[in-house]
Design a protein that fits this description.
Length: 542
């Protein structure tokens, strides 16, 4: 018997006279739903580990360990409260729950956030083996999106600030305006010092999970760092205390900065815990609203959690994960996704059960594969290599590196939105379909056009040079030899027709139109040369 089984057995509870719930891997909280208000001695929970889910995509090892150790610790925490716990390992969620519902009676479950799980469980809901109850972890409602789309985060955020009265006084926004975004765009000069990320005690249960990942999932990519795994509820709360003390006061000004000297800067690193249910958005927003910190940081942070996080969830839901856009059903990947680099390329990822591989929409017709550099081979581009190294070491990089380095470069290279989304999904420890698909497929690549963003987030080298120190140690010179300016102009030239109706692209397109024929030929030649070399896995040199 292993450490986890022994710990769970030591809290054995009678299973008689219990009302049973199924708790999915990302609802690990007793502060919402029936666990928050019903007598623990009258409740039982079912927790399922599913090796097939872990094998479905080449998930980062750190993510596999994070999910498993939190699920196991949650089992013990609930058993210690007096809840009866059934922890099972199943060939699929559906197979495990079918048998358990026959034995224990219909299981209640809060609506799963992941579409992928909802699709798998749909037949059980239809048969009454599972009974859906509302997910109480969201702060906002689908109606807050307003209308059939396109949707804008700003409008959504203004609406929910007013409706929920967050950062409002006497019906007016605190500080006189709803957004302080314009004040939050500083580069980070190296001071004030950025905090080091917290580390955690590695107990016998986390050790056992890490052994399982190392032995059974050794072929998955990414480094496994047990000391960087928050595992318990106490770890999650400690992380949040750390975030409040060390990150929140300076969150705003350096929100968009990037640096080789700190991968995390003043970002809180709470997304993996929020997305597993270990932290609750309500608690986060309430705490920050009460904090005595500069208003630009306070508002900037609340916008992320109350605005962006809720917004992308609703957009995903409203479009069925971009399978239905403006009422029209979109093509989906008919087979498995494509693999990547170094061992993965030969192994197709199995499609989700009942799944379709996800929306293939690309309004720009982008269809190239994710270059090997994203899987760790050197590109010679300092910004890209720096962020990719962080991702495979930590399963994390912050928002601007995701958007303005990884997504920007892939978009400039015409990488398929689907393939890039699948890459993000496996590479990041906070990725689940409802959050990764809107952020990458819609925001990062403009794959679904102006459905939720006003323009593609593409840029040449000036933005990266201004907001980071990457260029200082790059073999390219951002103003002379860097290929990004040409890639940017070539992108505008190639996609002129598709972007012509996008208001915020009118100025950039007008600038592109003023380029000479020779400049255009040069831009196109740089694009072809750089794209071909990166697709072959070659490092670029000036
Ligand atoms: C291309 C791309 C891919 C992304 N993929 C994911 C993903 O798979 N999972 C994920 O949770 N976030 C994703 N994001 C959003 C954002 O980058 C991360 O939530 C954030 O970097 C997490 O780090 P943090 O906790 O330190 O965030 P902080 O900067 O400290 O922000 C606080 C919190 O705000 C929330 N938040 C902010 N922006 C978003 C957003 N756009 N969508 C959802 N939540 C947001 C997160 O919960 C985050 O923890 C993605 C963004 C981009 C541009
Ligand atoms: S010079 Fe160009 S390639 Fe190098 S770090 Fe700067 S933006 Fe990236």
């Amino acid at each position: 018997m292993g450490a986890f089984s022994r710990a769970l057995a030591s809290h054995h509870r009678t299973e008689k006279a219990r009302r049973w719930l199924f708790v999915p891997y990302d609802q690990l909280s007793d502060e919402i739903g029936p666990l928050s208000r019903e007598d623990p001695k009258e409740l039982g929970i079912v927790l399922v580990e599913c090796p097939a889910k872990a094998a479905r995509r080449p998930y980062h090892k750190q993510k596999l360990a994070l999910v498993l150790t939190n699920l196991r610790h949650f089992a013990i925490e609930q058993a210690a409260r007096g809840v009866a716990v059934r922890h099972v390992v199943g060939a699929s969620y559906a197979a495990a729950l079918e048998g358990l519902s026959a034995e224990l009676g219909p299981l209640r479950v809060m609506r799963p956030a992941e579409r992928e799980l909802r699709v798998e469980l749909a037949p059980l809901f239809d048969r009454g083996a599972l009974l859906e109850i509302p997910h109480e972890g969201w702060l906002t409602k689908r109606e807050d999106l307003q209308g059939p789309g396109p949707w804008r985060m700003d409008a959504f955020y203004r609406g929910v600030r007013r409706r929920l009265g967050v950062l409002m006084k006497g019906g007016k926004p605190v500080g006189g305006k709803l957004s302080f975004d314009a004040e939050n765009r500083q580069a980070w000069p190296g001071t004030p010092p950025a905090p080091a990320s917290p580390t955690y005690e590695v107990d016998a249960i986390t050790e056992e999970v890490c052994e399982l990942v190392t032995s059974r999932m050794a072929h998955h990519p990414g480094a496994l760092r047990p000391e960087a795994l928050p595992a318990t509820r106490a770890d999650a709360e400690r992380t949040w205390r750390w975030s409040k003390q060390h990150c929140l006061p300076l969150f705003g000004p350096f929100e968009d900065a990037m640096s080789t000297r700190s991968r995390t800067l003043f970002h809180t690193r709470i997304s993996p815990l929020l997305n597993l249910g270990r932290l609750r958005p309500k608690q986060i927003v309430d705490d920050v609203e009460r904090m005595d910190i500069p208003l630009a940081s306070k508002e900037g942070f609340i916008r992320q959690v109350l605005g962006w996080r809720e917004f992308v969830h609703h957009v995903h839901d409203a479009t069925d994960g971009f399978r239905v856009l403006r009422g029209v059903t979109q093509p989906t990947a008919s087979g498995p996704g494509k693999g990547g680099f170094d061992g993965w390329s030969e192994e197709p990822w199995p499609a989700a059960p009942g799944g379709d591989g996800g929306s293939l929409t690309s309004v720009l017709g982008a269809d190239r594969p994710v270059p090997p550099a994203y899987w760790g081979s050197s590109s010679g581009l300092r910004c890209l290599d720096e962020v990719v190294a962080a991702v495979w070491e930590d399963g994390y990089s912050h928002h601007i590196t995701r958007l303005m380095v990884l997504s920007n470069i892939a978009t400039l290279l015409d990488v398929s939105p689907r393939e890039l989304t699948d890459w993000f999904w496996v590479a990041y420890i906070d990725a689940y379909d409802w959050v990764v698909e809107p952020n990458v497929h819609a925001m990062g690549t403009f794959g679904v056009g102006d459905l939720m963003t006003t323009k593609p987030y593409v840029a040449g080298s000036a933005y990266i040079d201004k907001m980071s120190d990457y260029c200082e140690s790059c073999r390219f010179d951002p103003k002379k030899s860097c290929p990004f300016p040409s890639l940017y102009w070539a992108f505008l030239g190639r996609h002129r027709d598709a972007l012509a109706g996008v208001d915020r692209m009118k100025l950039p397109l007008a600038s592109e139109a003023r380029r000479t024929a020779a400049q255009r030929r040069h831009d196109a030649e740089v694009f072809e040369r750089v794209a071909a070399a990166l697709m072959r896995g070659e490092a670029l040199a000036p």
